[in-house]
């Protein structure tokens, strides 16, 4: 017999999913992308200050990008859902004579995504802020990123009523792949001599 997550009766997970998806996507994207970027900069041995400055810049740019992208995406979904509900108004869901209100909110999704990106991305920034050695900073960012991904995965699983182990595992493994790929490829490019071309340009 498998251990299935306990679903509380009366909990509207469908309505919760409207903002939960945007929030979890933003938090995970912020954590993974900022951690990966900082580790990539660390692979070039550019220094801890370069890691932090690059991470901070990416944090601001990423949160704005997430908010704009989520707003446009959810607004398009809103238009589609509104048109569908107008076509199906006569056959509304049997819910005491009321229509099911699962219309997405573009502004709420944008705000949730942006704030969640900031929350996720600030984790590796804070972790690296107290480290002067770039090589140590890479390890600290990787550790902080892993703990953060596990935490966000657990929160998402709890709020969504899904399996805790599976939710955490997917987020952590995906993050490891992203961070490892970024670090490895950046180091490979830097060691190949391309960094010298950048120095000449500068």
TrEMBL record:
Instruction: List the Pfam families hit by this protein, alphabetically.
Output: VIT1
> Any idea where this protein resides?
Vacuole membrane
* Lineage, broadest ranks: Eukaryota, Viridiplantae, Streptophyta, Embryophyta, Tracheophyta
Q: What is the membrane topology listed in the Swiss-Prot or TrEMBL record?
A: Multi-pass membrane protein
- Natural source organism: Salvia divinorum
Gene Ontology MF terms in the entry: iron ion sequestering activity; iron ion transmembrane transporter activity
Principal place where this protein is found?
A: membrane
List UniProt keywords, sorted A-Z: Ion transport, Iron, Iron transport, Membrane, Transmembrane, Transmembrane helix, Transport, Vacuole
Function summary: Vacuolar Fe(2+) uptake transporter.
Q: Name one GO cellular component term.
A: vacuolar membrane
Q: Which family does it belong to?
A: Belongs to the CCC1 family.
Stored InterPro entries: Ccc1_fam
Reaction it catalyzes: Fe(2+)(in) = Fe(2+)(out)
Q: What is this protein called?
A: Vacuolar iron transporter
Query: What residue ranges are annotated as transmembrane?
Result: 107-130, 136-160
